[in-house]
Specification:
This protein is an alpha+beta fold. The strands form 5 sheets. It has a 4-stranded antiparallel β-sheet with strand order 3-1-11-14, with helices on one face. A 4-stranded antiparallel β-sheet has the order 2-9-6-5, covered by helices on one side.
Length: about 200
């Protein structure tokens, strides 16, 4: 049986509480994402067979032992609504600049090395998937954490009134998640994890 899977990172416990406070400050008709489901996707993998899953785990185990999976930092500081998928999220500001590996400002500067580390890890995962014949798509990297789903409308509160100016996500662990549909909604259990190194 195949599994719907993706690679990503999780916020800290303190950041999860901040995200919950942010949810409470937003007026929307959307359905709030449960705290246990907060994550930032690095590479969406689609449906994986057991063979593909084990091959991916083996390959990432090897890269981890060689300390070739690098840590990264990213600041998420901008509310954004995607009307078509009806998703309301917090994402990195000026993401097109991040994809071009330029320095950006989000209340404080993110240095180019951190931006490059995020992009490099994303590209590394994409290349690995290509090598393993895993179709992960070619969508541009859009670092974000989803706050609400099925959100057709939301009240655009002033950024200054939000209970958070940014989420400074310091990724120290890469996770392989399964997207699992249950009677109580979708869940994202972690299947395997790898430490990220400097």
């Amino acid at each position: 049986m195949s599994k719907r899977m993706f690679l990503g990172v999780s916020p800290t416990a303190a950041q999860t509480q901040t995200l919950l406070s942010l949810q409470q400050a937003i007026k929307t008709d959307g359905r709030p994402v449960p705290a246990d489901n907060f994550h930032m996707t690095l590479s969406f993998l689609g449906q994986l067979t057991s063979t593909q899953e084990q091959a991916l785990i083996h390959a990432l185990d090897k890269l981890s032992r060689q300390q070739k999976l690098a840590t990264f930092n990213v600041c998420l500081n901008r509310l954004h609504h995607w009307p078509k998928p009806k998703v309301l999220c917090i994402k990195a500001d000026l993401i097109e600049e991040l994809n071009k590996e330029k320095e950006i400002k989000t209340g404080k500067e993110i240095d180019k090395a951190n931006s490059s580390a995020l992009i490099s890890l994303h590209q590394q995962c994409q290349r690995l998937c290509d090598k393993l014949d895993i179709s992960c798509g070619d969508n541009p990297l859009t670092p974000h954490i989803t706050l609400f789903r099925k959100a057709r409308h939301y009240h655009a509160v002033e950024q200054q009134s939000l209970p958070v100016s940014l989420i400074h996500l310091q990724a120290r662990t890469l996770h392989l998640y399964q997207s699992l549909s249950t009677d109580n909604g979708v869940r994202y259990p972690i299947v395997h994890s790898w430490p990220l190194t400097n």
